[in-house]
Amino acid sequence: MDAHIARIRIMKRASVTLAIAAIVVANAAPARTEDDLPVRNCAWCHGASGQGTGVAPALAGQRAQYLERELQSFRDHSRDDPAAKQYMWGATARLSPEMAHGFAHYFALQPAEAANDGDAELAASGKLIYEQGVPEANVVSCIVCHGPRGEGFEAIPRLGGMSYAYVKSRLEMWAQGYHAAAHPMPHIARTLSPHEIEALASYVSFLK
Amino acid sequence: MKALRPSSCLLGLALLAFAATPGFAEDRPAEPPPQPLPKPQLDAKIAYCKTCHGLSGQGFRGAYVMPRLAGQQPQYLEEQLRAFIERRRLHPLMQNVAHALNPATLGAIAAHFKDLNPQSIGGGAKDLVAAGKKIYDEGVPDKQIPACASCHGADAKGDGAMPRLAGQLHEYTTRTLADWSKARGQDPAKPDASATMAPIAQGLTHEQAAAVAAYLGSLE
Amino acid sequence: MKVTGLSLAFAAAVLAFASVGASRAEERGGRQGFEAKIEYCKTCHGLSGEGYRGYYPMPRLAGQQPKYIENQLRAFIERRRVNPVMFNVAHALTPATLAALTQHFYNLNPPPLGGAPRESVGLGRTIFEQGLPEANIAACSACHGPEARGHEEIPRLAGQLYPYTVKSLTYWGKERGLGGKDDTSAIMVVTTHNLDAAQISAIAAYLAYLK
Question: pTM to 2 decimals?
Answer without folding.
Answer: 0.79
